[in-house]
Amino acid sequence: MRILGIDLAVTARHRAILADGRGRFMGGIVEFRTRRDDLERLYVLARRGMEPDEPLVVVLEATDIVWYPPAIYFQHRGATVYVINPRMAADLARFYQRHAKSDRLSAKVLARLPVVSPDSLYPWVLSSPDHLALQRGCKELERLTVQASAIKNRLRSTDHLGWPDLHQRVFPDPFSPAARWFRDHFYDPRRVVEAGTSGLRQTWQAAGEVYDGDEDWIEPLVALAQEVLALYGHEGEYLDYQALADEVGREQRRLAELEAEAHFVRLNVTRPRYRRLHPSRNLETLYGVGQDGAAVHVAFVGDPSRFASNRAFRGWSGLVPYSSQSGQRESKGLRITKAGPDLVKKYAYLEAETARQWDPQIAAIYHDQMVNKGKHHTQAVCACATHLLDRIRVILTEDRPYELRDVDGTPVTHRQARAIIAERYTVPEEVRQRNTHRARRERAERRMERKEERRSRSR
After folding, report:
1. Where are the domains positioned within the chain?
2. Full-prediction pTM beyond 0.90?
């Protein structure tokens, strides 16, 4: 076996080095670019002196998307390609050269990874163009969603400045049709007071398609506008009302554009392609998994047969905790490795949050984590997410619908499942309060105080 470690660059030349099956380097660093002639030259150099049936292994870092053309080329030439997480190479590089980092060192580290840690590497499986396009569509949808969420956060912050207590007293949903219309037309409190309750109601009723019949917010808004003017002054001595209204209007226009673009991508890009790749849509029979989450799983998992077991699939997903054991001591509650695709982890967590409320088996895991093992909510949901991923792998492998079952394997209906969860797996409120962030912080503070008291007495 020969191993070709390639350190990829975005703008500079790539660097590669060849090693034998024991990790001993054969020759020096070779520089090349992503051109067919350069790739052919590198392949000929790597195969020189090898037997026809001797395997060639190529190890690449997942650097931007520049890894894709070399991976395609070498796999077409019969090589086994590994596309690894940069964290793995960084960990091994720190072992070899703790205080040095270079492209040459990175190439050498990659060439030795299959020798040092073969069990942690998964051969790269070439996905179809549809799978790659679906991946990129899911990422585009995520970017649009994140940008829209950022604008919403800024609008909430601006509301706290210009209209204190607006969300508690007037708009419980700060992005309802009425709240958006208010920001576009009456964000200046002077206009609200000038229009009064009747004028505001008439203008709202004439708003066309935006008007949804909700008028309960009008009187509280007029009262709040009077308080805002009393606080900041009728002439804007402390706050420029018009400048703030203009800013909010621009933000809302950007938000509307992002939401429209996300809606287009969802309906015309990700969902149609997902339905072509997974026509049975059996993933959606799993409670908590919707079309967006199912599209992410189909896109990133690709061929589920490449994972030999659920253990391997969990390791790929990154939703497994670090382990730390020494002698008789084993640390608990460590953070997850986060090794896999971020979107897979995100949707697995969101789906587990819903599944625990409908699936007795998932609910039992959540109850055990919270009640018996002392975990807080996020840790318990992450534990549920790993089990949910096991089910996702099985559904994709066997392409069959999911069936709700009790913990003993008995099939149950939706109504029976909800009744079982309510009867056996409802977490008491005192348990939730025991494991909240504030409660854990207070316990840690008390432990530190007792420790300091012991130190003071010993001194």
Report:
1. 2-126, 136-265, 282-427
2. no
